[in-house]
Design a protein that fits this description.
Blueprint: E1 5-14, E2 23-33, E3 38-42, H1 49-57, E4 64-66, E5 71-76, E6 79-82, H2 88-94, E7 99-102, H3 106-109, H4 116-127, H5 132-145, H6 151-155, H7 164-176, E8 182-186, H8 194-211, E9 214-219, H9 222-228, E10 231-236, E11 239-245, H10 246-251, H11 256-263, H12 303-307, E12 313-316, E13 319-321, H13 324-331
Parallel strand pairs: 3-9, 3-10, 7-8, 8-9
Antiparallel strand pairs: 1-2, 1-4, 1-5, 5-6, 10-11, 11-13, 12-13
Helix pairs in contact: 4-5, 4-7, 5-7, 7-8
Length: about 325
Amino acid sequence: MNHLLEMRNLAINLYRGKKQPQVKLCEGINLDIKVRQNFGIVGESGCGKSITCSSIMGLLSYPLSVDPSTSIRFASNDGEVDLTRLSASQMRRIRGKEISMIFQEPMTALDPMYTIESQINEALSFHTSLNRQEMHVAALAMLEKVKIPRPDQILSDYPHHLSGGMLQRVMIAIALINNPRLLIADEPTTALDVTIQAQILDLMNELRESYNTSVIMITHDLGVIAETCEMVAVFYAGQIVEQAEINELFHATAHPYTKGLLKSVTSLGKVSEPLYSIAGAVPTAGAFSKGCRFHDRCIACTEKCRTSMPELTEVAPGHLCRCWLNQEANNA
C-alpha cells in the first residue's frame, strides 16, 4: 500500500424491510489517507461525513451495512488488512489501538457512572498488559500531554465535574493513549466556545506531530479545515463533490456547492452585508434524483444537470470535481 488507508467504492445501505429496496446513504466514495496527514471532510449535516468514518471504525449496525463491493484497506502494525472483511473480534483489536475516534459530544460520549481514570484504563487494559499502577502512570502522563491542569485530581473526578473543554481533552487523551496510527475527529470543536476551540485545534496539531498520527477531521466549519488540514473532501448527499489540497480548494474552487459554502463563511470585514445562505436543503436519502444531487439548489443548473449524474473527474492536477460545468469547460 502507498497510503495508511485506502477506501474504494464505499457504499452504505439502509435496509427498510423485505418489501422495500435498500437505500444507499453513501456511494462511490474513494479516499486515500497518507501517513501523518491531516485530511478534512466537510459538508452540511446529513451529507454522510460521520457515517463514512463510522464505517472505517466498524461501528455500523443493523439496519445499516457496508456494501460487499466496498474495500477499506488499512496498513496496520501487523500488515495490510481490509477492515470490511474483519470479524468483530479482529476489529476490536484494531479499534481503540490503531484507529481511534473522538466523538461529537464529549458531554455524552463519556460514561457518567465511572471516573475519568476508569475510562482511560478501559482503553489501556483491553490493548495492553499493564498493571494497575502502570496504567495510572500512563493515564497521568497522557492528561499532562493534553494540558489538563491538576491531572491527579482529574483522574478521580467524574465527567459531570468537568467543563466541555476539559471533557474534550479527556476524549483526546483516551483516543491517543494507545498511540493510534489513525485518529478520526468527528466535529471535535462543535460544542465548545471559540477560545476553547482554538486551544483544542492547536493541541491536536501538536499531538499529531508528536505521535506521527494521521487525522481525519470531520466538520462543517471551513475555518477549522483551513486551520488544520492539508487535503479536503467536500461531501454532499452521500457523495464526494470536490476534493483537493487545501490551498487549491480555497483559491481555485470548482464546484458550485463548495463556492456556496465559502460564500456563507462570516467575515469581520463584511459585517454590514447580509449573511449568504444556499437555498433549499440536502435531499433525503432514497429521494435522490437521477442527475446531479445538487441541481435543485444550484444557480448554474442546466437540463443536463437534472437528468444525468456527473462523474468525479480531475479538473486540475490532484483536484477532483463532480460537476458538468467543469467537465464541459475542460472538454471545450
